[in-house]
Design brief:
Layout lengths: L1 E10 L6 E9 L11 E6 L1 E3 L2 E3 L12 E4 L1 E3 L5 E3 L6 E6 L6 E4 L6 E3 H12 L4
Antiparallel strand pairs: 1-2, 1-6, 2-3, 4-5, 6-9, 7-8, 9-10, 10-11
């Protein structure tokens, strides 16, 4: 979990596809180890007047707080585990002061403490 520092579109080496390089300031890790900031890429984005969109892909905005599920690719780079379920925006409920993880377009809303508990139990094999 952390805050998006930047999300920059760039061409791949062959100049065939646009990828977005996302830099995230890490606030909390639920699994693994990482230094802060962490950088990952995803297909799609904008470079100058050129844009590439992938259906279901998440768009990251600087300053946004997010929960991301990352995987290490064979080349060593990091990417989202899933285009539409690999990232959740984090929002604070003003009435309760509790953080919530919001799915695509805010359709899914989960209390963040509950999400943490479920992830830790899954990692411990307690489902």
């Amino acid at each position: 979990m952390g805050e998006v520092i930047g999300a920059v579109g760039e061409w791949d080496a062959a100049r065939a596809n646009i990828h977005t390089r996302v830099e995230l300031s890490v606030a909390e890790l639920l699994k693994g180890a990482a230094s802060s900031p962490v950088t990952f890429t995803q297909l799609g984005g904008r470079v100058g007047g050129e844009a590439s969109a992938v259906a279901g892909a998440v768009a990251f905005q600087p300053g946004e707080r997010v929960l991301v599920f990352l995987t290490r690719r064979p080349d060593g780079s990091l990417g989202l585990t899933d285009l539409s379920h690999g990232a959740f925006s984090l929002a604070r409920d003003v009435a309760t002061g509790r953080d919530h993880a919001l799915g695509a377009a805010g359709a899914d809303r989960f209390e963040l403490d509950h999400v943490r508990t479920r992830i830790r139990r899954a990692l411990d094999g307690r489902g």
